[in-house]
Structures are given as C-alpha cells and as structure tokens.
Amino acid sequence: MVEPEIATKVPENDAVEQSAFPNDTVAQSGASIGEISKIADIDVYITKPSDYPHSPSKLLLFLSSGTGIFSTNNQLQADQYASEGFLVVMPDQFGGDPAPNSANPNAPQEENPTLIEQVKLRAAETVQSFMLDMWLARQTQEKVLPILQKFIEGAKEEFADAVANGGGIYAVGYCFGGKYVLLLASELPDTVAHGQKLKDEEQGVVKTGTLIKAGAIAHGTLVTKQDIEGVKAPVSMVCIENDQLFPDEIRESGKEYLEEKHIEHEIRVYSGVPHGFAVAGEYHDQEIQAEQKAAFEQMVSWLKGH
User: 21, 31, 133, 163: least surrounded by Cβ within 10 Å?
Assistant: First the structure.
C-alpha cells in the first residue's frame, strides 16, 4: 500500500525542462494535480480521477519520454488521462537516470553571437549529443524491463480494484516510453532481458503472455521491426511523417506485419508536426495545437474502446 507520509504533492512551480531529443516538446506551464509516491520501491507519479475510488476506474500505465516523471509536461499529460476516468501511474522506468537536458532555458540568448560564442555553442551541442548517446546506451531492455515488471506486479496489488474493473492493465507511451509499450504488448521471450534466465534448449524458448490489455503510443523512439513484430495486444500508434526516431520504413513494415497477422491496430500519420508534439506543451502554432488534440483523442478513444 502507498504510505500517506511518503506521498507528496508535486510542486506547482517545477523547473522548466527541455528534452534532450531534437525538436521535442516545448515546455508547458501549469500545476499538476497528482503526487509522487513509491510502488514496489520505485518512484511513481500517481494521478487519479476526481471521483475515485467512489466510482470505478481503470489502471493506466504511463511510460514517459526521457524527461521522466518529474517533468511538468509529462505530469500534465498524465493528468489529462485521469480527467478521462483513468487511474494513472507513471513509474520511473529509468531508475533515477532521466535523459540529460538539451539546454538551459534560463540561459541568456544572444541574437548575434560572436564567432567565439558560436564555437562555444557548437562545442556545447557536441557534448550534449555525446551525453545523450551515453544515456541511451545505459537504457537497455535488460535494465528497463525488469523495472517495469517489478512495478507492474506492485501496481496490480496496490490498485487491484482498477485492474479488475478494466480486465487488465492499459498502457500509453510517449517517445522512449512508446517502445516499451510495444514490448509489454508482446509475448516476450523468457530471457535475461525479461529479468529471467533462458530455459534449456530441449524445453525451447518460453514466452510470457502480454503484460497489458491494450496500448497506445505517440512518436515512439528507437522502435525496431522486431518490437512491432512481437506485438499481440491491440495497439494504436500516433506517428509523424519523416520521423528520424521512428523511420517511415519501419512503420510501414510494422503495419504490413500487423495486418498480415490480423492483430488489431490503428496507425495514423501526422504531418507538419515535430517529434514530441503529442505531449502536453505550449505550442503557438494552431495547426500543431489541433493535431495535438487529435492525437490525444485518438489514444484515449482507443483505450476506452478496449
């Protein structure tokens, strides 16, 4: 059970963060309504419908972008699902190691930087790129999946009523989290990456059932053909045209596979929007705002329909 003294209200004025990924979500202002707590000794942001537990709810696992559970944007996005009736849990899937910030938003910006300042800027960008590469190298399936599995077991116990009401656990994933929603929607092999040892060859490779009932992802990061080809649970995908972090050829290959195997799915490609657009963020472009709303409606409708 969540200890009341551990749960704390998230500060209203979080530091403004920026994602380390190019063209990712712009910072969002505002106060989140959830709380930071622990489940299975893992930090988690929890946000609930206003009428829970008096009215039944469904448990939604929210897997964030690399900015993690303390990101105001991610918390506000989770709150949106809570407003739609889901009990939302957003675990720290990075084990206290979120992605490095891409910039200091409070740093003064020069309109006409000198040559020396330009050299310094390029050097800083090179360092940042190296730091991001190093961070991604640390976020392996062998690290992340056992964290998620441990958390899921704890959440199933903590919120057994919501799991029972929904007939399972639902999941959404943004950016980095999108890849792992696909993996949780798969019949994962019983391997070290799954937190267990491989069975002997005579017994064959043992596979688990899917860990979620249905999932929805937005602009997944570093998704592979194998990630999609393992999917067995219904999935909805918000994708971006010409997204370097989720190439068109992988998306098309995955779509063909899901259709061939008759796996229930929905894929919509959005054009003219940046990677990360579906996460809560203060975009001034009205077209991006409209597409952001459409993406959320796509994802929440899919979850409610399953």
Answer: 133
| Angstrom distance (rounded) from CA 204 to CA 181 | 26
CA distances from 78 to 53, 62, 147, 262 (A): 18, 7, 20, 30
Q: What is the pLDDT of residues 93-141, one digit of tens each?
A: 999 888 886 333 334 444 555 665 555 445 445 555 657 778 778 878 9
Write down the pTM of the prediction: 0.81
* DSSP character at residue 46: E
Give the CA dihedral 194, 245, 231, 169, nearest 10 degrees.
70
Sign of CA dihedral 66, 71, 75, 80: negative
Dmax over CA atoms of the chain, in Å, equals: 68
Angle ∠(249,250,254) on CA atoms, nearest 5:
115
Buried b (16+ CB within 10 A) or exposed e, 43-59: bbbbbbbeebeeeebbb
Residue in the block written with tokens 């792992």: 180
State which amino acid sits at residue 136.
L
